[in-house]
Design a protein that fits this description.
about 500 residues; 2 domains; pyridoxal phosphate; single chain; PLP-dependent transferase; globular; Aspartate Aminotransferase, domain 2; Aspartate Aminotransferase, domain 1; alpha/beta; transferase
Length: about 500
């Protein structure tokens, strides 16, 4: 039986393919596409055939960049030919209804109204759109966390550092995992109340529309508190109780910006209409199988007056001083429909990605397999390395798991690992994993210990975790024998990038 998505977008028993001239057609080869009338292969390595991954590459790092299914790649290739067959037709007319279909599909997945959802290049772009549109006042506060993703934390830092006034102040919640959800909630509420006590003379009367005391009149608004909250942190890969955090923030009169970069396609039962965050964003190119880069930005209609401009400012910008403002408001959707010439294929191929996921069995089936593998694989990793899981209960786990690496654990900060040594170990591990062992899993230092973060995806099985466990055992022995044998980090020759063309590496594991 066809699912709702396939029926809606095709109306047939096969996936619709945009027509292209035969001389230009880039079509999948034998076995590289799929028939919706037939059952898919079982989850695990049989599904690896439907991805462009190298046969010998063991990928336990899907969470950083995603892995695109072949049907999405071929749909994007076909669309690229269609676009350049007549760029004017596509960029002036043809892309608009397709973009609307993509927005509608994403909105349905996250329980939102289509008019509250737009597509942007990535989560960092979406986050900047939100934070740079707030009208900041001297005395405003932004709350982040020690686990906030680097680019997001730096965006907050920039707002506090910039030369132009006014500038908000940055506060940071310290999360040292493992923590229970109850402990996270306690720390979150405590930080908000601590902030109010610390700035007791400040009137925090600029509160969200759903909080008690909200007043739209700018004259009645003084200062505000904005909390940037991860739904799933990057390092470690931990599922936070962000829905309950939204409730606490609403009670406390705090604006919520949910950085859900890892959520769509990984986290189940998002339902934003029920949770009611003030802002929410997520990457579609990570877990949803969309082409890079594509992210969803959700702004409920009650808050769209805050997003005065897209980034960059669009042709469809409406000045608050314009007569059109009374009719259109900030023109949120139209502003984000066209912000300049760019590649629209990541946005438009979202329906292809969702259709493929539906063929695999749908969101729940994908989650059930990946969550179980994340937990079982983590236990096997820990067994091989002689360590333990960050979270044995699974409460903190969606489809990424965290396991301690067999390296010394600090009892006090800096006791073993200086910043230089930490950087050297990270680079050493990256080079070894990628260029010697043809694999990758996230590795990071948190709360005095080294851990690995492994993504479980539909193309993985237990043997992938077993392989990576053995690899980490070997690498960690080398770390102890080389880097840690010289605590001043002088033996650095073997730490240079393996490729002569790559002299400066930046490690991003969002």
């Amino acid at each position: 039986m066809l699912g709702w998505f396939t029926r809606y977008f095709t109306g047939t028993d096969s996936i619709a393919v945009p027509p292209t001239p035969s001389r230009k057609r880039i079509a999948p080869g034998p076995g590289e596409s799929y028939d919706v009338s037939r059952r898919p292969p079982p989850f695990g390595h049989p599904l690896k055939h439907y991805f462009a991954l190298d046969d010998k590459y063991v990928n336990l790092n899907h969470g950083s960049y995603g892995s695109i299914p072949l049907p999405v790649i071929y749909a994007a290739n076909q669309l690229a030919y269609e676009i350049d067959a007549n760029p004017d037709v596509f960029n002036r007319v043809a892309y608009k209804p397709r973009l609307a279909k993509s927005r509608e599909a994403v909105a349905k997945l996250i329980g939102a109204d289509t008019g509250e959802v737009v597509l942007v290049p990535n989560a960092t772009h979406a986050l900047n759109t939100i934070l740079r549109n707030f009208e900041w006042r001297e005395g405003d506060l932004i709350i982040g966390a020690t686990t906030t993703y680097g680019a997001v934390s730096n965006t907050i830092r920039y707002l506090t550092d910039r030369s132009e006034q006014p500038r908000p102040k940055m506060l940071t919640i310290v999360y040292n995992f493992p923590l229970t959800h109850a402990e996270v909630l306690e720390l979150f509420r405590a930080k908000i109340r601590e902030a109010k006590q610390q700035y007791a003379d400040t009137q925090f009367t600029d509160v969200p529309p759903l909080s008690e005391g909200y007043d739209r009149d700018p004259a009645e608004k003084k200062n505000k508190i904005v909390a940037v909250i991860d739904s799933i942190t990057s390092n470690p890969g931990v599922l936070l109780p962000w829905k309950d955090m939204c409730s606490i923030a609403r009670e406390e009169g705090v604006w919520t910006v949910i950085d859900a970069a890892h959520s769509i396609g990984q986290e189940q039962h998002i339902n934003l209409s029920d949770t009611k965050p003030d802002f929410w964003l997520s990457n579609c190119h990570k877990w949803l199988f969309a082409k890079r880069g594509c992210a969803v930005l959700y702004v409920p209609k009650r808050n769209q007056y805050i997003i005065k401009s897209s980034l960059p400012t669009s042709h469809q910008y409406v000045s608050p001083n314009s007569p059109k403002y009374k009719e259109l408001g900030t023109n949120f959707v139209m502003q984000h429909e066209w912000t300049g010439t760019t590649d629209e294929t990541p946005y438009i191929t979202v329906p292809t990605a969702i259709a493929f996921r539906e063929w695999l069995g749908g969101e729940q089936a994908i989650y059930d397999y990946c969550h179980k593998l994340a937990m079982d694989g983590a236990r096997r990793l820990a067994e091989i390395m002689g360590t333990k899981l960050l979270d044995e209960s699974g409460v903190l786990v969606a489809t990424m798991s965290n396991v301690y690496l067999p390296l010394p654990v600090e009892k006090a900060p800096g006791e073993i690992y200086s910043p230089e040594v930490l950087a050297n170990i990270s680079m050493f591990m990256m080079n070894k994993l990628l260029f010697e062992y043809n694999t990758y899993a996230g590795h990071f230092f948190h709360n005095g210990a080294w851990m690995c973060r492994c993504s479980a995806q539909v193309f993985n099985d237990m043997s992938d975790f077993e392989y990576v466990g053995k690899v980490f055992n070997t690498i960690c022995e080398e770390v102890k024998d080389t880097i840690l044998s010289n605590m001043h980090g002088k033996q650095l020759g073997h730490l240079r990038p393996s490729s002569p063309d790559e002299e400066d590496w930046v490690i991003v594991t969002y």
